[in-house]
Entericidin A/B family lipoprotein
Amino acid sequence: MSRSIRAVTALTLVGLFLAACNTVAGVGRDIEAGGEAITGTAEDAAQ
């Protein structure tokens, strides 16, 4: 029984880790898009 609890715990942690990777990647893309928008606005204002 202890072995099955460890297996379920390990699978749960792996699932959470994979979900966190997708979330972090999405946040990175959002931040990058925001930075590009700010850069574009600054370049337009400089002209």
Notes: Residues 2-46 form the longest helix (45 residues). The CA atoms of residues 6 and 12 lie 10 Å apart.
